[in-house]
Known about the structure:
Blueprint: H1 2-21, E1 28-32, E2 35-42, H2 43-55, E3 79-80, E4 84-90, E5 99-104, H3 107-116, E6 120-123, E7 126-129, E8 132-137, E9 140-144, E10 163-167, H4 168-171, E11 177-183, E12 186-194, E13 198-202, H5 209-217, E14 224-229, H6 230-237, H7 244-248, E15 250-271, E16 277-297, H8 300-309, E17 327-331, E18 335-340, E19 354-359, H9 362-366, H10 373-381, E20 382-390, E21 393-400, H11 407-410
Antiparallel strand pairs: 1-10, 2-4, 2-11, 3-5, 5-9, 6-7, 7-8, 8-9, 11-12, 12-13, 13-21, 14-15, 14-19, 15-16, 16-18, 17-18, 19-20, 20-21
Amino acid sequence: MKKKLIVLVVFLFAAIIYFIFYHKKNKFTIVSANADVIILVDAKKLTRQYVYNFATHPSQWFGSKNEDKNSISIIKSGVEIPDFFQIFHLKNSKFSDWYSVFELKDRQRFITFLKQQKFADQGNNIFKKNQVFIKLLNKNCIVGTSDKGFDSIDYQMLPSSKINILDAGELINHGIGTILFNSDKGSSNLSIELNSDEIIIKNNLDSNDSPSIISKLQHTKSFIETELDTENIKNFSSLFDKTFANSSQINYLKATAELEQANDTIITYGYDDNFNEVEKKSIQKIIQPNYVINFQSSDPEKTEQYFQNKKWTNAQKQFTAIPFQPNYIEKNKTGFEIKSIRKSIQLFPKLNENYIFVRNNALLLSSFKSLTSSEKKLISDIDYIFYGNNDQDYYLKLQFKKGELPLILRW
């Protein structure tokens, strides 16, 4: 009898574990048909990873002393947490505009949660806090970094030309999620890995090229190191100006930048007791980048004409498209070189690779005055960001500083 009871208990325990951490009600997810970038996350995998890390870090078991016991958690806020949730970007919208849609189990409880989190009611079922917008739409809520796309996202009419149904279970075959890119050329997806102190996004699971490039770049002290070919210039510039790459004829870019704190003299004028004008000088510390940028062009004459038409160069041979003045632009046989005047620095040796390497710098954080304390904490935790591309292989790494807790528990 005892053996049967033990078997029953073990079976029930295994069933509970399975339904909580593995069982998925629906592996399909609905996204807007005009989304060009979709981030899908496997909530079950993320939960398993969280529970494992929580269980292996006893310091987190008893919660925070400052935790408000009366506050409503997101899990109990009235929102249905799906097996797969998505964050997407709409075609022809700003790069910073991203959205997600969730089903509501209890609309009134969710409104209470929003009020508790100090979301302001904007009317028309739209709530706002800082740069987060939420729209209630019958049994759904749309969360976005902007409210401009709300009208084009409609999940009430099914089936509809406004939505696509994706097999998230098939798309996420490695890591906790995937990023899906839709374009006229087709679609591609990259896996998302969340490790103890890094986030890696890539499409080639066997590639070892990027880590070797990172090890070379870590020997520098630069704030930014980058080297890009024609295709990568076209991809990045299209975020801001779709015609730049073709019109400018630029087919190669290499740049190095360092940050330095410098004294800036501010001159103001006042009047003395006799109403004579008096010049006053004050010194303030500013963050000044020192940089060198090398552009290579398939047709330097056309590139020069393009810069002039855009009014990016002036009579003093300064490249005014870069707001950090002063600098000097010089034409050579293959293209142009732009150098900051204040301090001369050298380009990092050519690697014949495509990469962008951004190292965190304490000076950078001091220039972000408008950030909240939690946003500053997140940025200060980053060690470096690396993007690498080799033909059809893409690799993005956010390396965080070593900490007592893994990333999933820090947030």
